[in-house]
Amino acid sequence: MNLDIPAEDHPIFKSIPKWSKISLDRYNYIEYILITTNIWRKMILETVEKVAINNEIAIYQLIKKYIFRMDLFEKQARENYWSFTRNVIMEKDKLINELHGDRLTLIGKMAASMAHEIRNPLTSIQGFLKLIKQIVSSETNNKIASCLKIIEDDFETIHMQITGFLSFSRNREHDESYDNISLIQIIDSVLSMLNPRLIQEDVICVKKYKKDKIIRVQRKGIQQVISNLMNNAADALFDVSHKKVITMSMKEDDDNVYLHISNNGPKISDEIVDLLFTPFVTNKTSGTGLGLTICKQILQKNDGDILFDTNEIETTFILSFKKALE
Predict the structure, then answer these.
(1) CA distance linking residue 204 with residue 61, whole number of Å
(2) Are residues 264 and 226 in the same domain?
(3) Same domain, 311 and 211
(4) Where is each Histidine kinase domain found (predicted)?
(5) 316 vs 13, 112, 170, CA distance in Å?
(6) Domain assignment present for 13
(7) pLDDT (tens digit, 9 = 90+) per residue, 137-188?
(8) Same domain, 116 and 74
(9) SS3 for 159-180, per residue?
(10) Are 109 and 93 part of one and the same domain?
(11) Residue 215: exposed, middle, or buried by beta-carbon count in 10 A (0-12, 13-18, 19+)?
């Protein structure tokens, strides 16, 4: 309260950074600074009441000086407190990002190793399938040809899963080329493989789009994403008793195309809703918790993204893609 000492030179003013750090370490939040200011204001009024005798100008000038000092103290305290808080938040974010990056790197190495082990025998199987198709005439052996078609479709599904696992690998040699592709063609190729399951489980697929959209993406990677989301939607509908519906629709703006994949199954659990794209997080008893993480990474590699909305009526995943340049 000694006005003879300039505010910036006062020992209390100089101790604000230390005081702010101690407050943060003790979890004394910003409201404590305001409480301190209110206490100080009360002291100012009491001091003015004692020193001012029938002199309104002197009272006004004194109050003005005290309040200016009080505001200066509060401003400095808030700025220091926020500076320390921001640094703590940045350090924690940095640590979280580093841990997440290390985790994904480890997953990538595991996934790449596993994918290579699976891919080698699959390549051999694919070669023998082609050889069998050349030997067997589909005209005289329709049943065999039909079985081979099912095997080929399942083979392609496994191949897309491997592509997804390899998306965790940082080895660029596994990257597929980017091409201008019809989004409807990608959807149709996925549905051709998924339709037997949808029919068997009485799931209706409603397509609410007519006009095609051309996007520049990696075909197999995006097929993997859509296939994974469609299978997840079918999984969500497996135990429901009402009519099972998966709805697909498209929207667009100047730069992006949006594919909405909705199902009228139960709401995603609140326990995992904020961690849905985190590796190993799943509410499926037999799930790995990697599917949505892989989907997000594939989309980000294709300059896109994935969001979702869930409620008691339906759950919708929204895929965004950059439009192909004309």
Answers:
(1) 79
(2) yes
(3) yes
(4) 113-325
(5) 55, 30, 30
(6) yes
(7) 655 567 777 777 777 777 766 766 666 566 555 444 456 788 999 999 999 9
(8) no
(9) HHHHHHHHCCCCCHHHCCCCEE
(10) no
(11) buried
Question: 3-state DSSP call for residue 1?
Answer: coil
Res 2: pLDDT: 75
* Chain centre distance of CA 84: 28
Backbone angles phi, psi at 40, to 5 degrees: -65, -40
Flag whether 1 is in a domain: no
CATH number at residue 273: 3.30.565.10
- Boundary-marking domain end, from 144, 166, 188: 166
Within 26-55, residue ranges assigned H as helices are 31-51
pLDDT tens for each residue of 91-141? 887 787 777 667 666 666 666 666 656 766 676 677 777 777 777 665 556
Residues 75 and 93 placed together within one structural domain of the fold: yes
Residue 160 shares a structural domain with residue 184: no
Amino acid at the residue 312: E
Residue type, 325: L
Q: Are 319 and 254 in contact (CB under 8 A)?
A: no
Same domain, 202 and 311: yes
Residues 189 and 58 in one domain: no
Sequence-separated contacts (24+) of 175-180 with Cβ below 8 Å:
175/218, 175/301, 176/218, 176/219, 176/220, 176/221, 177/218, 178/216, 178/217, 178/218, 178/302, 179/216, 179/217, 179/218, 179/219, 180/214, 180/215, 180/216, 180/324
Q: For residue 7, name the pLDDT band (cuts at 50, 70, 90).
A: confident
Note the pLDDT of residue 52: 61
Q: Last residue of a domain, which of 97, 115, 142?
A: 97
Cα torsion through 166, 115, 124, 129, rounded to 10: -70
Sheet of 256-263, strand order:
203-208, 244-252, 256-263, 315-322, 305-310
pLDDT at 173: 43
Show the tokens assigned to 186: 């990608």
Residue range of the domain that includes 283: 178-322
pTM greater than 0.70: no
**Encoding tokens for residue 16?**
């604000």
